[in-house]
Write a structure and sequence with these properties.
Length: about 130
């Protein structure tokens, strides 16, 4: 082979012909199949690596999205809990004014919203 031919093959500007491939393998004293198999394995491993890295990045973006949604929902629960407390206090006042301390007591001692959420989840799972 001429020096220019080897240079263009190395640069990738000219494909390696099958007979040249056989000569190179013979000069290197290696089985030509081992070169092809190694390339296939390397290509497959690189493709797998790229695919798994892309999947990890996608999962990380999705996790971040869910984290933000959870934070928003936590804030909404806090806001609703405040509104719930205000409504229960109004009921206490109304029932006491009506002379119904029994009903006022029920609304004065509401269980915390967190307990309601736990109970609701148990009901949804059929554990209640």
């Amino acid at each position: 082979m001429q020096q220019q031919t080897i240079l263009t093959i190395e640069k990738g500007t000219r494909p390696l012909k099958l007979d040249e491939f056989a000569v190179m393998a013979d000069v290197l004293r290696i089985d030509p199949g081992s070169l092809v198999d190694a390339t296939d394995e390397r290509t497959a491993a690189l493709a797998k690596l790229r695919a798994t890295e892309a999947a990890i990045a996608r999962c990380d973006r999705e996790r971040e999205s869910h984290r933000q949604e959870i934070e928003r929902l936590d804030q909404e629960i806090e806001n609703q809990e405040l509104l719930r407390r205000e409504a229960s206090q109004r009921l206490v006042v109304v029932f006491e004014a009506e002379g119904r301390p029994d009903l006022a007591t029920i609304y004065a001692n509401l269980e915390p919203g967190a307990n309601l959420i736990k109970t609701w989840k148990k009901i949804r799972r059929g554990q209640h």
